[in-house]
Amino acid sequence: MEQDHTEMLRSLRFTLAFVHCIMEIAVSKGSAMDASEAPDASFLQQQSLVADQISLLSREWSYAEQLVLYMKTAELLSSALHNAMEGIKQGKLFPSSTVKQVVKKLNELYKSSVSSCRCLNVRLQRFFVHKQRLMDRINSITAEKLVYSHTVQMVQAAALDEMFHHGEASIQRYHKALLLMEGLSLIITEQADISNISKCKLCIERRLSALQSGLCA
User: Fold this and answer.
1) DSSP of 71-130
2) Do residues 103 and 81 lie in contact, with contact meaning Cβ atoms separated by under 8 Å?
3) Which CATH number fits domain 2-38+48-138: 1.10.132, 1.10.10, 2.60.40, 1.10.530?
4) What is the reported pTM?
5) Closest to 182 in 3D by CA, of 213, 162, 160, 205
6) Residue intervals in the chain for CATH 1.20.58.80
7) Which residue numbers delimit the Serine/threonine-protein kinase Atg1-like tMIT domain (predicted)?
8) What is the CATH number of domain 143-212?
9) What is the DSSP code (8-state) at residue 48?
10) Within 10 A of 198 (CB to CB), how many other CB atoms are there?
């Protein structure tokens, strides 16, 4: 029973860490959107209708990406909370103070994710009333693709840090990228994708091992 408790708590903590990383990606989508909306003198002078439309589409696309990411975190958190409750009922997970804290945090993030989903959905519904074609395109977005793309960019940034001898920054990026890849491997189903992620994880682990053993300056 002690082993069941330890394993379930480890799984809950991993979900918490994985969800935190996904939510950071969602926040970055919003930050990029805010930066793109900064006033620009030439833009204000032109008052271009085309530019207005491009800016609007860019903003709504960011909303859509954020929405699918928060939907994924809500799904993961809901599953984790359900498993925790079932584990406690079955006596496999002991309701210790640590477990209660983890479950409380999972519940808080779940409520936050649902709230973000509702807010973003309202914004998008107003925009897409007459934009069905673009809506069809946005429906093709998946949280898994967004997380994978972000993780690949993170690995590339880590490699640059490594190249310029920023060892600590490189290690931090590799660790977070490894966590994201590990999380993805638990939720994807396509065998080809699973294989690619396994290869990526192996490469990241090798770089971390080299950096941490001091083989790289």
Assistant:
1) HHHHHHHHHHHHHHHHHHHTTSS---HHHHHHHHHHHHHHHHHHHHHHHHHHHHHHHGGG
2) yes
3) 1.10.132
4) 0.79
5) 205
6) 143-212
7) 22-127
8) 1.20.58.80
9) -
10) 12
Size (the chain), residues: 217
Give the type of residue at 127: F
